[in-house]
Amino acid sequence: MNLGNGKLDAIQIVGPLTLSDTTMPSLALQWVPQPVRGELQTVQRHNATVTVAPTGASGSLLLITLTVQRKDFSGDALADLTYAISGAAAKVPWTSTSASGTASASTLKEAIDLINELPGFKAWALHAPHAMALNSDNFIALSATAIKTGVGPDGTSSILYRDASDFLDGNSDMVAYLRIGLPEVRDANSFKLLGIEGVSTGVTNGVVRLYRDEYAEYGQTAEVYVNKALVAAQTEYIGKDRSDAATLRGPCILEVRSDDLSAAEYRVAIMQDSLGA
Q1: What is the DSSP string of 42-57?
Q2: In whole angstroms, how far apart are CA 273 and each of 10, 13, 185, 277?
Q3: What residues have CB less than 8 Å from 244, skipping those under 6 apart?
Q4: What is the pTM of this model?
Q5: What is the pLDDT of residues 222-235, one digit of tens each?
Q6: Would you call 175 helix, strand, or coil by DSSP?
Q7: Which is nearest to 129 in space by CA: 173, 86, 166, 178?
Q8: What number of H helices and E strands is found in the chain?
Q9: Cβ pair 49, 147 in contact under 8 A
C-alpha cells in the first residue's frame, strides 16, 4: 500500500509477512521467445511452463522443471525442450542449454543463476534470501503453469512457495521471510526505515532480523540492521519518524523465526531516501 501522492517523503507500508503456504513466493520468473543459435529458422518457441515437484528429484528432493513448447511455421507441434533443476547438496551445471538439459542447485542463488543461463528466461529472488537451501522437499507442488512474459501490469510469475509447517532454515527454525526494496523488491536503492511491527504465535528462542541481501554481494557478510528477540504480542520493534529514521541499503530481508513459529503477521514502514529512487 502506498500513502501520499508520489512525493519523496511518502510512506510505504510493505507486507504483510506471513507464515503461509500461499503468500510468500521465493522466486520470480519471466520468459520471452527468442531465436537460438543453431536452431532452424522454421522452429518457433511459443510458450514456456514451470512445474514444481517437492519430491521429484533423486532422493525425493525438490525438482523445478522448465518446459519450452515449440512448433513449426505450419503450426505443427515439435518436441518440447525440458530443463530440470534438482535440489542437491552442491551445484551441478547444465548438461545442455540448447537441447533439453539437467542441473542441480543447493541454494536459491544457484537456481537463479542456472535459470538465467537458459535462452529467453529471467529469474530473481522474491521473499527468500539468496542463500536459502533447496536441498529439501519442503516446498509446495505446482502443476505445469505458463510463465509470464513481463508484459502488462502482472507480468511476472511468482513461484516456489515454502511448506510453512515443515520448512526449516539453516538454524533448524521455522521461518518466514519478506523481501524489501525500492522501487521493486530486487532493487538496491537506499530507503529510510520508519517501522517494523507485528504479532507472532510460537516465539521460543525467536528472533526478528532485518538484513541486506543483495545478489551482487552474495557470499559476503550481510549488513544486519535489526536483530531483536521475538515476542508474541503486537509489538513495535522499530518506531521512528522522518527526522531520526535510519537510512538503509536495499534490498533487505525481514526474517521472523523461532523454534516453534506457527503464525506471524508483520509490516514494515519505509520511505525513499533523498539519494534513492
Answers
A1: T-EEEEEEEEEEEEEE
A2: 10, 15, 15, 8
A3: none
A4: 0.93
A5: 999 999 999 999 99
A6: strand
A7: 178
A8: 1, 17
A9: yes
**Domain 11-22+168-272 in this protein, CATH class:** mainly beta
Q: Torsion angle, CA of 151/215/127/177, rounded to 10 degrees?
A: -170
* pLDDT greater than 70 at residue 89: yes
SS3 at position 112: helix
Domain ranges of the chain: 11-22+168-272, 25-161
Measured distance CA(176)–CA(21) in Å, rounded: 10
Q: Which residue has the cell 509447517?
A: 165
Q: Which residues of 81-102 are buried (b: 16+ CB within 10 A; e: fewer)?
A: bebbbbbbeebbebeebeebbb
State the average pLDDT over residues 117-121. 96
Close Cβ partners of 59 (under 8 Å, ≥ 6 residues apart): none
Element (H, E) at 239: strand 235-239
Strands 157-161 and 25-31 come out as: antiparallel
153: left (phi over 0), alpha (psi -120 to 50) or beta: alpha
Q: Above 70 in pLDDT, residue 12? A: yes
As a whole number of angstroms, the distance between CA 92 and CA 44 comes to: 29
Of the candidates 273, 271, 264, the residue with the CA atom closest to the CA atom of residue 197: 264
Residue 40, CA distances (Å) to 72, 88, 101, 194, 201 in order: 9, 35, 19, 55, 57
Answer whether 13's CB lies under 8 Å from 1's CB. Answer: yes
Please give the residue that has the higher pLDDT: either 182 or 257: 257
